[in-house]
Prior knowledge:
By secondary structure, chain A is mainly alpha-helical. Chain A has helices spanning 21-27, 33-43, 55-62, 65-73, 77-88, 94-109, 111-125, 127-131, 141-167, 175-187, 190-202, 234-237, 256-311, 336-341, 372-381, and strands at 209-215, 221-227, 246-250, 315-316, 329-333, 349-352, 387-388. The longest helix of chain A is centred in the C-terminal third of the chain and has 56 residues, at 256-311. Chain B starts with 22 loop residues before the first helix and ends with a helix. Chains A and B meet through helix 9, helix 11, strand 1, strand 2 and strand 3 of A and helix 7, strand 1, strand 2, helix 10 and helix 11 of B.
Amino acid sequence: MRVFLLHSDRDFDVKPHLRDDVFKAMLSGDLFALNRIAFDRQRRKQPDPPPPPGTDDVLAQDLELGTLWAAMSGGDDFLFQTVKRAILSSLRDPEAIRYRQRVLADCLERPAIVRQLYELAIEALENERKADGGLWFSDRPDMTLSHSVRVLALHVDVLRRLRQIADQREGFRSEGFTRFFAMLKGELADDYLQTVEQHLRELGFKRGVLESARLGKGDKGRDYVVRRAPEQRWTERLPFGSRTPGYSFTIAPRDEAGFRALEEVRGRGINLVANAVAQAADHIKSFFTMLRLELAFYLGCLNLHERLGHKGEPACFPEPLTEDQPALTTAGLYDVCLTLHVQNRVVGNELDADGMSLVMITGANQGGARGARPVRCAVRAAGGGPDPGAGPP
Amino acid sequence: MSGDLPGSASRFHSILFGHPVRDADVDGLEEPDSFADLNLDQVLAAMTAGREQYKLEPFFFAPLHQVAAVRYRHEVLRDLERAEVAEPVRRFAGSLRLMREHLTQVEKLHYQLQKQSWFLDAVEIYCDAVHSLATDLSELVLGSRGLQGLRDYLAGYAASESFASVAAGTKALKEALARVRYAIRINGPRVTVITYTGEADYSAEVEETFGKFRQAAVRSHLAKLPDHTGMNHVEAKILDGVARLHPEVFQARADFCVRHRDYVDATIGRFDREVQFYLASLETVERLREAGLPFCYPRVSADSKETAADQTFDIALASKLVPQGGSVVCNDFHLGGPERVFVVSGPNNGGKTTFARTFGQLHHLASLGLLVPGRKARIFLPDQIFTHFEREEDIETLRGKFDDELVRVREILERATSDSVIVMNESFNSTSLSDALFVGTEVMRQILELGCVGVYVTFVDEIASLGEATVSMVSQVVPENPAERTFKVIRKKADGRAYAWALAEKYGLSYERLMERIGA
């Protein structure tokens, strides 16, 4: 299961220099990872590390992108870090940009559903902590298994609700969401989720574990495999009615070494099962991690769109063209960062510079000569975000 | 097999001895007195390091006195110097070491069934090893009677009914045990061992169901479970249950273990031990050869006392210097015609003692049938080797140093025969020049009367010219710098002045230099 809401064919990808500790923390699926980094820096009285020298800083300063990111984040650090990385890793392929624009259009259409999806992702990422009944040791397959079963049971619940959202997906027309919802419907069908839940119940091994084995070196058991126990006939459940030819013994109640030894034998069998279940939990966690990360970008866009809309500032989807078609035509193009700073609406400009490679802006000081900023900003917006402006003429 | 030398031993007994030797005769031997003086104890320790289990020392204490016996070993060594021969032998030795580790494990283990399992594995390793060595040797052209004999012996043994039945029995049991599948039902404290009847693989089912979520690789959650050799009582009880479910296989194995308790053939067991004597010495030779030092098969004789060696060296010193990157000085010597004893003199620390040791070592190594240091060597096989080296005063003898030396010399002279080798090093240095001259001359006279071959290191020049049987050797200094030693010992008349000349020349006090300066 893959999210693929930012790129049509891969997970959210950022420029190499943006894959820093913060980004790793965002990919960890740990909801507190970012807080921990911030806390750590505070404790060591370390300011944020200076960004690596490159065009990004200059660009961010010139365009006052910090203002933009802050507005998009609405005070949420995770959103801030996500939109910052997405905007600095802007796209160049018009088709990839349109893919994002269409996903965003869906989000603008159904913002409540998108926020609901985001909340579900966060809920799923809390499951590990919720299921944690205390300390567990990774060298004990039984502990790994029981922990993972608890986590998965919670995950299945979230997955089911996610699927239910996918069932009512009117208003979503983009390829991104269409594929995403179709995947949820296909992969998380009710009978599949029931099978999973059935397994999760069986993995408690209430009726005991059946393992097969062979003789290894020194007659030690090897190749332990957990087997599906056959349904017992009612006669076999009686203490005296067992008809299976076999040889039984019972560990004495106070034989602690005996119980430990038995747990080891049991563990050799369930090791594979525990691994499969634990890995499934990891996979689901990384699915929700990516879902949250990719939706965070769109949430940022929704936040910005709401703020602009509140002021009555217009926004539109620019029409992206390839590099070999130098084009720049705008109507009512304004400086988004400027409007975020001031109470009133800002003045937009017309620009008709198709086929031009350079635009010269002259005039009196404080007369809007910094109008170059909205132009560059608009070019950045080709990355998929909403573009301040009334729309293409 | 076609290129073999004729005369393979009809019945192979030992890779070390062409004729049957009782093991007890060799194993009872103690380190000879001369070993420590010649530093051969160090060489032996280095050679046998890591081979303690073979108890090789007694073989090094058993010199051969017959040319034929030495040749028997030379032949084997020449074969083993070929990688294609040494490799299968080493593999065989490795297998038998593994087999012995298994038998050690059998001793250590507690549960009977486990003991039987390890024992069966030991037998399997043995059978495979014997079979492989027999096959490998049959494909080789062997030059030595020893290895030819072994090959023929192995061929006969491997084809014998008793061996074939052990091998087949082992294989059948291993296969039957490999087929044993069982199942354990664990429910709370209750454990039931039952026959496995093809119940579906639940792990696979779980893996398949949950595999849907698989994306990029995630870390493994497989617990690293402990891997003991032994068993706890729960495992043992489960195993008991398995044995009850498969009584025939386990009973057959138990019977097998009793029936074949002594499965190792005595001759093959002896070969495994004895061949290490060769491998150990060849490893040392190989190490020193890599440093550019020569080794050769000496021409040995039980009659002729003509003795010679080209480019020979002290193997103990070389073993110490080579790993440190030091260089080793080689020397030549020969005794021809009536010559019997080298009298070595010269400046101190000039290599006199090393020369004496080299001489003694050469005789010992040659008598063991081993390769000796040098490009070419001719060695007389002595009946005994005596050494007389300066020793620390021993409080227990209650004698002075000179007294003690005299006592030891008397013992040597009483026991030595005309076929002995005597190495006297710096004897009687603790007394005055006149006493040393008197005693030394007397001792030397007796050695010459016996007709022994030997070395006599001394600072008394006169001893060097006691007759045609003595050969004077002098350790050399660098002519321009008499303080610098060359460690070369060469045949030279010991007039007591060679050293003085060199010193005079160095300080411009030679006649010519003095005349020049006076004239000027």
